[in-house]
From TrEMBL:
Gene3D superfamilies with a match to the protein in the record: Glycosidases
Signal peptide: 1-24
Catalytic activity reported: Hydrolysis of (1->3)-beta-D-glucosidic linkages in (1->3)-beta-D-glucans
Protein name, as recorded: glucan endo-1,3-beta-D-glucosidase
EC number annotated for this UniProt entry: 3.2.1.39
Biased composition annotated in UniProt, kind: Low complexity: 362-410
GO term, biological process aspect, one: carbohydrate metabolic process
Transmembrane intervals: 426-452
Biased composition (Polar residues): 350-361
Organism, scientific name: Populus trichocarpa (Western balsam poplar)
Region annotated Disordered, chain positions: 350-410
Keyword Hydrolase tagged: yes
Pfam families in alphabetical order: Glyco_hydro_17
Amino acid sequence: MVVLPYTVAFLLLSCLQTVKIANSQSFLGINYGQVADNLPPPSSNAKLLQSTSIQKVRLYGSDPAIIKALANTGIGIVIGTANGDIPGLASDSNFTKSWINKNVLPFYPASNIILITVGNEVMTSNDQNLMNKLLPAMQNVQNALNDASLGGKIKVSTVHSMGVLKQSEPPSSGSFDPSYGDLMKGLLEFNSANGSPFAINTYPYFAYRSDTRPEILAFCLFQPNAGRMDGNTKIKYMNMFDAQVDAVYSALNSMGFKNVEIVVAETGWPFKGDDNDVGPSIENAKAYNGNLIAHLRSMVGTPLMPGKSVDTYLFALYDEDLKPGPGSERSPGIFKTDLTMVYDVGLSTSNQTQSPAASPQSSPTTTNTTNSTTTTTTTTSTTTSNNNSSTSTSTSTGTGTSTSTGTGTNTVTINISSSSDINKVYLIKIFNLGLLYGFTRLSLICLFFYYLQT
Ligand SMILES: *[C@@H]1O[C@H](CO)[C@@H](O)[C@H](O)[C@H]1NC(C)=O
Ligand SMILES: *[C@@H]1O[C@H](CO)[C@@H](O)[C@H](O)[C@H]1NC(C)=O
Ligand SMILES: *[C@@H]1O[C@H](CO)[C@@H](O)[C@H](O)[C@H]1NC(C)=O
Ligand SMILES: *[C@@H]1O[C@H](CO)[C@@H](O)[C@H](O)[C@H]1NC(C)=O
Ligand SMILES: *[C@@H]1O[C@H](CO)[C@@H](O)[C@H](O)[C@H]1NC(C)=O
Ligand SMILES: *[C@@H]1O[C@H](CO)[C@@H](O)[C@H](O)[C@H]1NC(C)=O
Ligand SMILES: *[C@@H]1O[C@H](CO)[C@@H](O)[C@H](O)[C@H]1NC(C)=O
C-alpha cells in the first residue's frame, strides 16, 4: 500500500493556498425574501451580489425586475412558485406552460435561472390536498421545461423543512416521517430521475432555542465544544450544521436515495430579537454565518459526505420588515437595505484572495476554550499528533483531515480509523481543489494515489 505522507499533502495544499482563489465558490448562495417595503432597487441589488463571493440567489417568487437585473452576471437564480399555484400547476398543463412562458423564457439564458422550487415547506403544511398535488405540479413544470428544451438545464424541486424528518438524532438514524408513505418516495424518485436536488431548510438556531445551554450554543455556532458522539457510527459531531445535514443524508440513504444531492435552501441566525429573546445577537449571527462560510470554504464536508460542500443558501440577504411574528423573523439580514453590512462575515470579493479556509478568528465571539475537549488552533503549522482512537476528533490540524487550516473554531470530525483513511480524505480534498482551480494534473495524480490506497 502506498501512503502519501502528510507532509506531501500539506505541501501540495500550501501551494494551492498561495494561489489566488478564483471566485468559484459555487456552493455559496443567499436568500432574497421580499416581504419588505424598503428593499434596494434591483440594479443595486445585483451590484451588491457581484461585490461578494455569493454565486447564487434564491427568490421565493419570480420578480421579473430582479431576475432581469441579474442578467449577464452569471449569478445562479432560484425562482419559486407560490404554494397557492400548486393546484393549478398540477391540474392544468396549460397553466404550467404559461407560467414557464412568463417567468422563465423571457429571461433565460441571459439570467442564469438554475432551479425552480415548486412551493415552500409544503410537506409540513398539514394541507393534504397541497401535499398530494406537489408531485404532479413538479412533474408538469418539468414537462413544460422539457417542451421548451430546458429540461436538465433548469432543475425542478421543492423545499422542505427539517420537520419532514421523524428523527434526526443521532445523525445516522435520520429518517423521514413514515406517515408520508409513498408521497415522500415519489418526490425522491422525481429528484433522482431528474437529477434535481433535495432542498431543505436547516436551522441550528432553532435547535438552540429548544435547548439553551451554553454548550449547545457553542455546538450550534461551530465554536469549541465537547462534540456529540453518534453511538451508531462512533462519529463525533462537532457542530449542529453537520449533524443536521448528515441526518438528512441518512434519511435519503434509508430510502435508497443517497445519490440525490442535498441543498441547504435556508440557514441563518437572526442578529436581533424581542427583549425576552434568547439567541439572536450580532455576535451570534456573525459567529454562525462566519463560521459556516469558513466551514463551507474549507471543503471538509460533513462526516458522512466528506470532501465537498453542500450548496448552502444563507438566510438572508436583507431583513424583511413586513414579516409577521417575533422580532427575530424580521432580523435575519446580513446586509442592510442601504447595502452596507450588518456584520462582516468575509463575503466581500476582497476577502476571496485568502485561503479558502478564511479564518473567522476576527470574530468577537471568542469562546472559553479552557473547558473544551477539542482544542483548536489557528495556525497551519502545528504538527499532527496522531491519536489512535477510532473516532478522532479533528481540530483543524490534529488529524490532518482538514484543509481548513485557519478555521480556529471550525472543527469537523471524520471517522478516521487509519492513516490511509486520512490520506484518502486529503486526496479527495486535493482532488476537488485541483478541479476547482483548474489543476487537472494534480487531480489526476490524487486520483491515482486514491485508487492505490483502496
Ligand atoms: C390548452 O390550450 C390549448 C390551446 O391553447 C387548448 O386547445 C386546450 O384545450 C387547453 N387545455 C386545457 C386543459 O385547458
Ligand atoms: C467508524 O469507525 C468504526 C471503528 O473503526 C467503524 O466500526 C464504523 O463503521 C465507522 N463508521 C463509519 C461511518 O465509517
Ligand atoms: C474582508 O476584507 C476587508 C478588506 O480587505 C477587511 O477589512 C475585512 O476585515 C475582511 N473581512 C473578513 C471577515 O475577513
Ligand atoms: C473560562 O472558564 C474558566 C473555567 O470554567 C473560568 O474560570 C474563566 O473565567 C472563563 N473565562 C472566560 C473568559 O469566560
Ligand atoms: C466544564 O463544563 C462543565 C459543564 O458545562 C462544567 O460542569 C465543568 O465544571 C467545566 N469544567 C471546567 C474545567 O471548567
Ligand atoms: C487520544 O485522545 C484522547 C482524548 O483526546 C486522550 O485521552 C488519549 O490519551 C489519546 N491517546 C493517545 C494514544 O494519544
Ligand atoms: C495505533 O494503535 C496500534 C495498535 O492499536 C499501534 O500498533 C500503533 O502503533 C498506534 N499508532 C499510534 C500512532 O499511536
